[in-house]
Amino acid sequence: MSDSDRYNIQPLEEDDMKVKTFSTALEIFHVKKQLADLDRLVNDFIENNKVAHVVSVSDTTTSGDRGATIGVIRVLLYE
Fold this sequence. Notes:
Blueprint: H1 3-6, E1 18-25, H2 31-48, E2 54-63, E3 69-78
């Protein structure tokens, strides 16, 4: 049995894919709230735009001059 059969993997058409990027600054002592707000923002986008299928969600951080993490960029790939 192939992986595509085992996991019911369906090929996706490139034209069906959309990307939305979200970002937030991170401030010391406020990170938990800022990440919760980012989660809420993404979830609201998914609900309000009636996103049928989320393909991927990916986070990466940004850093300042001294190497400290100062922000998060979240990328949503969806149909």
